[in-house]
């Protein structure tokens, strides 16, 4: 049976950590290990970890240099076939989530699902596409809270880039799909909850996110970027023409064909 390594990174988020740990403990599946990487928290998180340490295959609490340094620590000690990053605060959508997904965890390098995005006064489902394109990855990425990655893919591509603050997981995925031809599969199932307020969803970090993405795209995919921008410009032009009242009238009069 496929073994899943659930890696939880935490820093001073005691309540979020408790929620994540409880959610993992409540899973009806048993083919997983749970790894806790704590960044030397001072808010009582360590007490939560020690109270639940029998549920973990590995845990550590020590300073780190950032979230991706912590995630890389988890990768290095993981024993599972697939890795899932369910960081502090995130939880599974229901107790059978892992059990449903487990039967499809084979062959593909990357398997991703949908998530619930929960805000202060709203909730929505983020549904991922079945087919990943460079255009989609240019703007977005399947959520790491619902993405299972083969452990040996990190051996092929390398660990997360620790020089980046926000988009290293996005860099890894776009390189995996577009440069290393990693195989992937989408499971149309909501398996985890993401609570808005993480590092990449805070407004003041949006500019840094754009800057980091722009740097990676220029370094790794400069030729693709030019073609993509031209394609988007042409598509926008066609969209504008389709919405033009004059064009709609000409089509209605039969003077030009619908396009």
Q: How would you explain this protein's 3D organization?
A:
The protein is α/β, with parallel strands linked by helices and 259 residues long. It folds into two domains: 4-205, Spore Coat Polysaccharide Biosynthesis Protein SpsA, Chain A (Alpha-Beta Complex), CATH 3.90.550; 221-259, no CATH class. Helix content is 40%, strand content 20%. The chain contains ten helices and nine strands. The chain has helices spanning 14-25, 45-51, 67-77, 97-102, 134-139, 151-157, 168-178, 206-220, 222-242, 245-252; strands at 4-10, 32-38, 58-61, 82-85, 91-92, 110-118, 123-126, 147-150, 184-195. Strands 1, 2, 3, 4, 5, 6, 7, 8 and 9 form a nine-stranded mixed beta sheet that branches. Helix 2 links the parallel strand 2 (32-38) and strand 3 (58-61). The longest helix is centred in the last third of the chain and has 21 residues, at 222-242. One of its GO terms (molecular function) is hexosyltransferase activity.
């Amino acid at each position: 049976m496929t073994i899943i390594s659930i890696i939880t990174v935490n820093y001073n988020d005691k309540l979020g950590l408790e929620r994540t740990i409880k959610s993992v403990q409540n899973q009806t599946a048993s083919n997983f290990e749970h790894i806790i990487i704590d960044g030397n928290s001072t808010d009582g998180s360590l007490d939560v970890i020690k109270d639940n340490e029998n549920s973990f295959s590995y845990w550590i609490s020590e300073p780190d240099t950032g979230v991706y340094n912590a995630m890389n620590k988890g990768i290095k000690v993981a024993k599972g076939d697939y890795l899932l990053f369910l960081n502090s605060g995130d939880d599974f959508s229901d107790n059978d989530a892992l059990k449903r997904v487990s039967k499809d965890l084979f062959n593909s390098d990357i398997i991703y699902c949908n998530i619930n995005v929960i805000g202060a006064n709203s909730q929505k489902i983020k549904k991922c596409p079945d087919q990943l394109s460079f255009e989609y990855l240019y703007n977005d990425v399947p959520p790491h809270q619902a993405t299972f990655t083969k452990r040996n893919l990190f051996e092929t591509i390398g660990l997360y880039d620790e020089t980046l603050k926000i988009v290293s997981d996005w860099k890894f995925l776009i390189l995996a799909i577009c440069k290393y031809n990693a195989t992937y599969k989408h499971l149309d199932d909501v398996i985890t909850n993401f609570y808005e307020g993480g590092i990449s969803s805070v407004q003041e970090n949006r500019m840094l996110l754009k800057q980091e993405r722009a740097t990676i795209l220029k370094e790794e995919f400069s030729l693709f970027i030019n073609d993509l921008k031209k394609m988007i410009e042409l598509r926008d032009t066609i969209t504008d023409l389709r919405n033009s009242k004059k064009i709609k009238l000409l089509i209605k009069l039969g003077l030009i064909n619908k396009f």
